[in-house]
Structure formats: C-alpha cells, structure tokens
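As a warm-up, study this chain.
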Amino acid sequence: MLARTYSIRSTVEYPRVPGERRYPPTPPALIWQQLLLIAPVLLYSMVAHEYAHGWAALKQGDPTAESLGRLTWNPVSHIDPFMTVLLPLMLAFAGAPILGGAKPIPVNPGNFRNIRRGDIIVSLAGVTANLLIAICCIPLAVLFGWLGGLTPSAVVPFAILQHMAIYGIFLNVILVVFNLLPIPPLDGSHVFKYLLPLPLARAYTRLAGAGILVLVALMYFVPGFSSIVLGPALFVRSLAERVYFPFLLPNPLS
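Now compare it with the structure written out below.
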C-alpha cells in the first residue's frame, strides 16, 4: 500500500477551500509534536490496510501471508525500510510532498478459488478497512470530547485522543481515495484491469514497476492532481466536523 501524507487542520493546516472554517497556521515549533499524534494513527491505519489484504486473501483460499507471518497486527512486520522510513524522511527534509507506504502483503492469486473474484475482493479489502476506521473515528472523537468535558482534570489526555481520532478520519479517507486510483500497483488498478481487453490489461499490469515514478510525476507536474485526493477527504472531514465540533476540546499542543 502506498500513501501520501498531507497537512491536517484542527491541529495542523488544511488547504483552503471556499466556505470552510479558517484556522490559524501551525507554528513550526509544533510540527514534531503533531507528528507524534499523526505517526501512530497513520502507521496502524496502514497496518490495518495490509492486514485486511492478508485476511481477505486467506478467506479466498490463499494462505501465503499467514504462512510467512505477515497476518499480524505487529507494525514491525509491515515496515519497509525504504518506503516506510527512508523515502518519507528524504522527501520531508527536501520540503516535498511526502510519499510512503507499507511493505505489501504477499499474495498468490493462483490459490484463489476464483482468481478474478478473489483478486477484486482482496484488492478492495484494504480500502474497506480504512473506510471503516474513518467511520469509527467519528463517534470516538465525540466520545473523547464528551469524556473530556465531564472530567476537567483529564482534559489533556482526552484532547490528545480526540485529535488522534480526528486525524484518523482525514488520513483514512485519503488512504481510501489514494489507493483506489487506477495506477499500478495501487489497489484500484487491480479492479480497473478487469474492465480492459485482455491484451491491454496485461500491458497495463506491467506498468506496476514504474508506478511510483508515475505517481511522483502526477503529484509534481499535473495541476489539480492533489485535489483529486484531498477533495473527498476535505468533504468527509467537513461533514464529520459537524458531528464532533460541539464536543471539540482545546488543542492539546497549544
């Protein structure tokens, strides 16, 4: 799974869109503190994504991930030294948009009881997990805000948990939209290829080796590409904000 990270409002700044609530920009001194909240949410969202792939593959008849010890919630098993650590750090220090990903779950489609159906189910399992996480984070944000309001002495830890849940909404919707892009090797390409004639589908699948380069080129040279990913995430965030905003606790980093 690949993921692109973006700045987040509420404790970080969102891109400005007409009619949305304006927040003050994030002071540079708070960036590393914010990362302490974002990193575990993003990491376990990626772990859930990969675990869902492996679990769905197992249910479709492929035990490859389980036999290799990858069907686990231990994040260490899903960390790729380059894609998860080095590449995001290099891009961050270069001031560029951050692109990264977890170690892909090994899957052998030949073990599926029905290759076409199994491939589609396994490919969509990851984004389904992220969508469920995003939905669950909305009542969690409300719950933590409500509990923080009831217990003023514990408002800081509840504010931290609430803001992590808010990050969970935005980040997981981004993961859903980004991974559904029909660009090999993203999950969406495994569904899109079945809409193509067989010779074209085979050529399309071979683009997976250059998929990262294609993504980088789109991010840097195609105007409006970021809005394709950010647009749905911002829309969902604005809807979710109407639910949790009455329970919003003070920024724990301010």
